[in-house]
Every structure is written in structure tokens, then in C-alpha cells.
Write a structure and sequence with these properties.
The chain is 25% helix and 41% strand. By secondary structure, the protein is an alpha+beta fold. The protein has a 3-stranded antiparallel beta sheet with strand order 1-3-2, covered by helices on one side. A hairpin with a 4-residue loop joins strand 2 and strand 3. The longest helix has 20 residues.
């Protein structure tokens, strides 16, 4: 399965510290890091007594889709116990 967790973003935001901007104002700190933190709740939700997660891969996604979306793509495999 593949799930895309995302935020809409301003097109002029930078990824990290580009252009003399502060790292805290970058796309990673504002958009990716909070999703990675909240992702544990999602993982716990699907990793219950009836299912086991056998694969879990996370990829950062910056400026994707036509609406300038930032987020993470999680590819995972679960099996029924």
C-alpha cells in the first residue's frame, strides 16, 4: 500500500537554509518534520493485534502535484495474523 500525507505550501518557500533564510522557516521543518512526528500514530493504528507491518519505507516529497504539495510518501506492507 502507498499513502501520501501532505501539506499545501507556498511556492516561494525554500527547503532548508537556502537564500539566507532561517532553517526553521524551511519546507522540511514546517511541513515534513511534523508529518514524521505524527506518522507514529498512524503506524500504531494499523499495527494492531490483527495485522503486522512487514515493510515500512518513508520518502520526503517536495513540490509534487500541480498544487505545490510537500509531504511524505509511506509505502508499507501489512499481513493478517
Amino acid at each position: 500500500m502507498e499513502t501520501f500525507f501532505c501539506w499545501l505550501n507556498r511556492i516561494d518557500n525554500v527547503y532548508h537554509k537556502q537564500g539566507g533564510n532561517d532553517k526553521a522557516d524551511g519546507k522540511y521543518e514546517l511541513n515534513i518534520l511534523p508529518l514524521l512526528t505524527d506518522l507514529e500514530s498512524f503506524k500504531d493504528l494499523i499495527d494492531c493485534s490483527q495485522y503486522e507491518i512487514t515493510s515500512w519505507v518513508i520518502i520526503d516529497a517536495i513540490d509534487v502535484l500541480d498544487v505545490n504539495t510537500d509531504g511524505i510518501v509511506v509505502t508499507y506492507t501489512v499481513k493478517t495474523l
